[in-house]
Amino acid sequence: MGWNAGQGPEAGECLAWEAHRGPVFALVVSPYGDLWSGSEGGVIKVWYGEAIEKSLGLQREEKRKTSFLVERSSIDLRAMVSDGGACPLPAVDVKLLLSDNSRSKVWSAGYLSFALWDSRTKDLLKVLNVDGQVDTRFDILTSQDQHSYETKQNLFSTPKKEKARNPVGFLQRSRNALLGAADAVRRVAVKAGFGDDTQRIEAFTLSTDGMIWTGSANGCLAQWDGSGNRLQEFQHHSSSVQCICNFGTRLWVGYMDGSIHLLDPEGTLLGGWIAHSSPILSMAVGGSYIFTLAGHGGIRGWNLSSPGPIDNILHSELIEKESSYKKFEYMKVLVGSWNVGQEKASHESLRAWLKLPTPEVGVVVIGLQEVEMGAGFLAMSAAKETVGLEGSPNGEWWLDVIGQILKGHSFVCVGSRQMAGLLIAVWVKINLKQYIGDIDNAAVACGLGRAIGNKGAVGLRMRIYGRSICFINCHFAAHMEAVSKRNEDFDHVFSSMTFSASSSGFLTTSVSASAAQLLRGPNGSRLPELSDTDMVVFLGDLNYRLYGISYDEAMSLVSQRCFDWLRENDQLRAEMRSGRVFQGLREGEFKFPPTYKFEKHTPGLSGYDCSEKRRIPAWCDRILYRDNRASSEVECSLECPVVCSISLYDSCMEAIDSDHKPVKCVFNLDIAHVDKQIMRQKYGEIISSNKKLMYSLQGLEAFPESNISTNDIVLRDQNPSVLKLQNRSRKELARFEITGQTSNSSATHFPGFPSWLKVSPAVGIISPGQTVEVTLQHGEPRSRDFLTGPSGNNSSGADQGKAAATLLVIVTGVYSTAGRGHTVHVQHCRGGGIFIKRL
């Protein structure tokens, strides 16, 4: 944090001081104008607004001395609330700060906890965990921090009445130390990202009705009252919450996957839409719009009244012009799978397998199993996965040789993922690369303890012409009798596969309009992330075998190429018909021989296993898929944007390097999408030409007429005064917000309430024709020794028995920031009663 000292803000120069030793994660200004900052290790510091403002108003030669004073006189709240070396605050980074102006409180948030502070007195009011339970654990303050706090208290704090405190005895401190030590591992794990931190707090905001809303990494939204009581929670989406914004009577929630949800104050979902193809990092309200900032740098504006009558008009007009911006694309995707049995294939085998059947193939997806195995390799791979590392020499070899073959057809690799022996990679034609993006990956282990990657799945997800498509490469449990285990492997992969952030730190996967329904099941449970795609393809060594048939019977049918009869004994088809696995997916008709098990380097059908084990041939290697269609009769449209068919599903008998034969499938994809440039052009034409729409937009800019009961208030002693705000409109809601301005010796106005003034509520909603009462009351003024100038004289004039402040009351509608301002002058005098000067 830095302000450069100089002649003052009007000269482009400002005040500078060292704020923290470590990085600062959050800043907020309280209603009293104080600057609060949150840093690593749970450190929260506060600089009094009066001190900052006074320093900016000094002469140049005095300013550097005052900057030093401001820097040294900050309040370290963590140290201040520590008692006997024990601190009630967890020692985790303070990621978020929120000022509750209506109650004069500040909320600070770490990873899994909150703290509530009095923004006027800086007292710690409560420490909570994310479940709303009061946290009574104590962290241990280091001796250095304790000494630093005591030194600052001696140097810069003024003598004041000592607070009675309960001493922490030796036994209590010992207990706190043990609890703190036991909790340290959990905190470090959460901070490092290795713990179960799906409840991690990502965003929060204050709604106009005074409620606090928090959003977590698991998509959960929670509503709290101003005292820190958790009231209720809502799960409208599974993606991580990134930001929350409130204006009027609406809440907007921005998610990691680029979607926005609109809620009312009760948490009811009013609507939702895909705003961006990358995470929504921030939102802000201006005029009649809410603006969203995305991870890719894009900014978009959305009308504050949406969804509403304006949207109905726009939707109707845009539907009539749909033919002008609706576009269709056709392409072929080649998907191949091969269990390579730790072998490196010959050039001839690869050429035969990867031969492109048509030049229309624009995307090639390859999934390999058993690229590399062995107990030592699997253990090392599992260890590498825990710290985000992947890959192996064999994996690199395969990527290189396949890339060299496809390079001759103008393909480039755009993404890959390896977990143990599983490897998946995608190549696209150079001329299509501009239409393919947001590549993301994931991995799920199904081996020993769901931790070892000898069995499991790796996946890649991407946008193709703006539509979300996933490819999942699997290797499930082996052996004839392990049908249930294979089904469980699929269920585990489908339910738990979650795509990680990209190398930039952002999750950039888009979801389609057709799949924009909420990820909720019929009983309210969350649906898997793989449900929210336009198309998903499962490929790999699924290991389903032939049942109810002997080795000799199977070999006889194979030799006669009677594959139709053999398919009746296929475990996978039987399990799918019974609805026990791969629900909602389908497979193309295949007429190729079983792909397992072969003697290596033996060509043709004579290569099937003839050892003592006499393994029954089986179609272990499969490719299954799902598109947007609910039935085969549905055609491609913007409502059903991805429709596919199969033009080839075959094995490659020429490949003899493994005990499995590779398989490949060519999908014909029809993709419907919107030409956004043309659509924006049509949108602009509608806005400028539709008179009904123009009239509606102008109406949103209007704000209700309002009255205030007085413009001048004089406070004496502790007696409160009431300021009445009236909404004169009989139809429209009014929103009000009160801010403060305090005069100083330099004749400028310092933003914020003076420390001696309590205003409640400072923000709220006024119903049509109703009146809201705002209470103004004198509070105990805080110490002002930090305002003493370099000469030792206090020049603020605020402690001479009389103080003054100006309140600005802004009244707007709930669909626009346009409004009217009322000025209220407040004076505080010692002694006597209350004098209110009315207009």
TrEMBL record:
Domain Inositol polyphosphate-related phosphatase: 329-675
Entry keywords, A to Z: Hydrolase, Isopeptide bond, Magnesium, Metal-binding, Repeat, Ubl conjugation
Matching CDD domains: INPP5c (cd09074)
Domain of life of the native organism: Eukaryota
GO MF entry, a single one: phosphatidylinositol-4,5-bisphosphate 5-phosphatase activity
Gene Ontology terms describing biological process: phosphatidylinositol dephosphorylation; pollen germination
InterPro entries per the UniProt record, alphabetical: Beta-prop_IP5PC_F (IPR056454), Endo/exonu/phosph_ase_sf (IPR036691), Ig-like_IP5PC_F (IPR056455), IP5 (IPR046985), IPPc (IPR000300), WD40/YVTN_repeat-like_dom_sf (IPR015943), WD40_repeat_dom_sf (IPR036322), WD40_rpt (IPR001680)
Region Disordered, residue ranges: 780-799
Gene3D superfamilies the record matches: Endonuclease/exonuclease/phosphatase, YVTN repeat-like/Quinoprotein amine dehydrogenase
Cofactor annotation: Mg(2+)
Signal peptide: none
SUPFAM superfamilies: DNase I-like, WD40 repeat-like
Matching PANTHER family: BREVIS PLANT1, INOSITOL 5-PHOSPHATASE
Family (UniProt): Belongs to the inositol polyphosphate 5-phosphatase family.
Name under which the protein is recorded: Inositol polyphosphate-related phosphatase domain-containing protein
Source organism: Arundo donax (Giant reed)
